[in-house]
Amino acid sequence: MSFRRHRRDAQKEAARLDEPVREAGALARKLGLDPYPVNYWVVNYDEMNQLIAYGGFQERYPHWRWGMAYDRQRKTDQFGMGKAFEIVNNDEPANAFLQESNSLADQKAVITHVEAHSDFFNKNQWFGLFSDEGQFDAAAMLERHAQAIERYVQNPDVSRDEVEKFIDAVLCLEDTIDQHRSIREAAKDKDGRIPEDIRSQLKSLNISDDVRREVFDEEWLDRIEEAEREAAKLTDPRKDVLAYIREHGMRFDEETGKAEEMEPWQKDVLDMLREEAYYFAAQKMTKVMNEGWAAYWESLMMGDERFAGTDEFITYADHQSRVLGSPGLNPYKLGKELWEYIENTTNRAEVAEKLLRIKGITWRNFHEVVDFDEVQSLLRTDPVIDGVDAESLDELAALGPDDPRVDHEMLDRALSGDESIDVDAYPWKVLSYEGLAARHYSLVKPQNRGFLRRIRRSELEQLSRYMFDDELYDSVDEALADVNKAAGWDRMREIRESHNDVTFLDAFLTEEFVRANHYFAYEFSQSSRQFRVSSTQYEDVKKKLLFQFTNFGKPTIAVYDGNFDNRGELLLGHQYNGVILDVKQARGVMSRVYHLWGRPVNLMTIIKEFDEHEVEVARRRGREPTPVERAIRIRYDGTEFTVSDLDPDLEARIAASDIDYDTKPDDWL
């Protein structure tokens, strides 16, 4: 880890943070994390706002969007609507930015948060999709793109407005990629070329009618056209819309009124923006997991492990409560609660499994014969491990040289008077991973008392179903002595490697979690014309959340045909899952796609229509009206939009099932 120093104030702040950075990295690794090395940069208020606008990087391509994002962030902070304490990017090494005006408590919180983020970047396989060929340097990639696009902007043969207009069009489609595959895997999909109008080509050759009839008869022309149409058909929808447009798109030339080949600079810009879309995809796909992961370990390090000093803790706790208490769908809060729930349920299953192996205890009589207060008492952390300080090192040594909870090398150094081992400030230094797991064992925390008692009979039955040595222990003491107190953390690390937000929620958002944390679903009421709570049922809440995170929370759009109606028109399809498109916004996107395709663009979707009389009746009776679903095709020809009913066979192709959350390829997990 290293600091970048510029101004005198930044140098002073960097010097103050050298120790917290070093010790936070060491603690993170003691806790079983494996972060990328992190370069910390100390920046001022204005630089921080610029970095946030740039998505965490110091250089991006010229475009008006960055100025808009900068102004929004500055006003958000200025009017007290939210302050940015940190920003970190996914790179190797990672780069994190600390605002020099932050308090020491805030800086420590940022550092611990960043170390956990960097671990997530390093270990989560969805981030690995972008770097599947080894190491990568995202900052260098984005810098190259910025410089290349700047050269196009400065080119006297290309106007800046033209470049920005083209970028605007591409950015409308930046999430229409196949985010479940690497950019290299997605690039392997190839389709037949879009067929040319062979009759028009023959006319341009200026051959005589006699030769044309003799050599190119109508039957032959029909066969060639049919063969080319078949070759161009898509057997499956292409999710990587940007790649398809890169292969087959054209530009509409306003002077000639025709579709022309894209300019080389346009293809180059499209390639660069598509590469950036794949780079940022993993961050969008794992927002809840990643922020929850960072919030969990930050809280443990700053609070439970007292990384925040006594005079800093109140400030830290106040700021964290604001972050976790932010209204709406809060990824920090939801993610942290889910990780804690996974830790608790894993630890509970570990304890229950040991108890079920005691003679006389079965899944049927578990709740009647187990003394949960006794179990809670026996699970309490050893006071020697829980209360480590400089005065108790001899007691720690008395546990013996084979105790796995002790870092014996560090303990020997501390006992030998090594001043670099400040046990009062950093008691974790003389403990191992197992010792820290025992020290922070979740089931003995006050907020989790009763969690073991709430285990359901169905879960107990499942645990005992394949249990053969079910009379292994004679007593509760003997059984609990074998409990692996690191089981929860071990399981959490396994999960953070393979899941994205949708699979994470699908697998671990249980009925117990929804009820305990008081989640509910809400929707806009057509009868009352305002938002209302629609359900507190677990299935409804889960389904609503899953749809919020499917495809980055945006509609899933794919290419269904590049030669629709044999006229070279683009046919896009909205993979409908019960959530309708914002048709007004969709039309705006289609008008931009037209400039990338150069020919008319079609969009298939399903809308919901309400009968006004039915709405009025529903309002009077205090219920919701039932909509009628209608499949439509919207067409844009560069001038106007037209809407027509969709053919039944095409309607069947865009309809998704109730459980299709578009989460992963079949063989992913």
From TrEMBL:
The lineage of its organism: Archaea, Methanobacteriati, Methanobacteriota, Stenosarchaea group, Halobacteria. Residues 15-379, 483-553 form the SpoVR protein-like N-terminal domain. It comes from the Archaea. Residues 555-606 form the SpoVR-like C-terminal domain. This is AbrB family transcriptional regulator. Coiled coil: none annotated. It comes from Haloferax marinisediminis.
